[in-house]
Design a protein that fits this description.
It contains 8 helices and 20 strands. With 368 residues, the protein is an alpha+beta fold. The strands form 3 sheets. It has an 8-stranded antiparallel beta barrel. Strands 1, 2, 3, 4, 5, 6 and 7 form a 7-stranded mixed sheet that branches. A hairpin with a 2-residue loop joins strand 19 and strand 20. It is elongated and about 70 Å long. The structure holds flavin mononucleotide (FMN). The site of flavin mononucleotide has 23 residues, from helix 1, helix 2, helix 3 and strand 3.
């Protein structure tokens, strides 16, 4: 009974305090940010208005396909029913309530902030629908989350978000706004934003490193589903493949399939493409064919490419990684006891007292 009363209070707690109109100083190099929200009774909408008065961001509102439903009616019967359906079968798209089609393309954004209500200590079902359907487009993005509840704490919502978005980089801890501090949201949001690690323009998220025979070169990736899936895979571990020469390229199996977006093109020296969904080709000369573009090796001449790629040889061992291996050579899968636990920047520089951010620890990317 007490829970029911507190929910009724929750429905009424929409706050009238003025939004903070002062925009925080935007870091000049921050990549584009999208705020995605769902709001049933208006609290999350108010949070989004306050948030977007402090940062530059585009806004996407998720709407249920079926209008006018009352999720709280009959002691929250419908809300409960929707959440139970998801819980019973979380991997089945038909378990999630239908939402209006979304036309916003996530490929334009590197940072995404989710603003969602809490329902029965879980993420509101409508927002779960959106995250379930867009998980692959979100792979590799920097994601933050604000959760609004009446009074329940938000760990269940955080777990839902991690289940629904297994391949994102969390910008930092989720922010909890509840009935008693909703009116103070401008300050809460301002302080929270300072703790987040936003993706920057042209940062390592666009870059991979290619190591062949002890030499490492960076490559700039294009943004498509295949590269986002590749980045997500590389966040778990580097990938080593064995490639062979083919007169104008070195190529071979990537050991996994990526989503293709094949187009007829002339690949140029330095280009990296996906061929037939699961093969990687790196060119030192040109070739016209239907490929999915992945990226391009930075700054090498044709002759330098031939040398780097070991053109003409066979069984060339090629390692792809998100972090530059130089400086973290000791961090093999079995790190020595001396190096184990040390923290390195993404560029391989040892860090003694790391502040919040993404680092390499025991050979893996970690968020501190
Ligand atoms: C179906 C439903 C279930 C809810 N369950 C809880 C709950 O378990 N604990 C809680 O503190 N608030 C609960 N709430 C209240 C909302 O989390 C809270 O009012 C939130 O601010 C709503 O955001 P909105 O106004 O953007 O929809 C529930 C609300 C609804 C509609």
């Amino acid at each position: 009974m007490q829970k029911i009363l507190s929910f009724l209070a929750a429905m009424l707690f929409c706050c009238c305090s003025a939004d903070n109109e002062v925009k925080a100083e935007e870091p000049a190099n921050t990549a584009k940010t999208l705020v995605v929200y769902y709001s049933y009774t208006g609290n999350c909408r108010e949070i989004v208005n306050t948030l977007t008065s402090q940062i530059e961001a585009d806004v996407l509102e998720i709407q249920p396909a079926e209008k006018g439903l009352r999720y709280e009616a009959n002691n929250y019967a419908l809300g409960t029913q929707l959440l139970n359906a998801i819980k019973a079968n979380p991997n089945d798209v038909s378990s999630y309530p239908a939402i209006d089609p979304v036309t916003t393309s996530l490929s334009d954004y590197q940072n995404i902030i989710i603003v969602t209500p809490l329902w029965w200590s879980q993420m509101a079902a409508i927002m779960q629908s959106y995250l379930f359907q867009s998980a692959s487009q979100m792979a590799g993005k920097h994601v933050g989350m604000i959760v609004s509840s009446h009074s329940s704490s938000i760990s269940g919502v955080v777990n839902d978000a991690k289940r629904l978005l297994p391949n994102v980089t969390w910008m930092g801890d989720a922010l909890w706004i509840n009935a008693s501090n909703h009116s103070n949201r401008a300050t809460l949001i301002e302080n929270w934003l300072k703790t987040l690690t936003f993706a920057e323009k042209n940062t390592t998220m666009d870059k991979i490193y290619i190591t062949i025979g002890g030499q490492t070169q960076s490559a700039t990736l294009v943004d498509n589903e295949a590269t986002r899936e590749l980045i997500a895979a590389l966040q778990d571990a580097s990938i080593t493949v064995t490639l062979n020469d083919n007169d104008f390229e070195i190529w071979g199996s990537l050991g996994k399939s990526l989503t293709t977006k094949n187009e007829q093109m002339t690949a140029l020296p330095g280009d990296i493409v996906l061929y037939n969904g699961s093969n990687i080709c790196i060119f030192y000369e040109s070739n016209s064919w239907s490929y999915t573009r992945l990226g391009h090796i930075d700054g090498l001449s044709e002759n330098e490419l031939r040398t780097f790629l070991k053109a003409g040889e066979s069984n060339i061992s090629v390692t792809l990684s998100l972090a530059k291996p130089t400086g973290i050579k000791g961090l093999s899968p079995n790190p020595s006891p001396v190096r184990e636990g040390r923290i390195y920047s993404l560029n391989g520089v040892k860090i003694e007292n790391p502040s919040k951010g993404i680092y390499i620890k025991n050979g893996k990317k970690v968020i501190l």
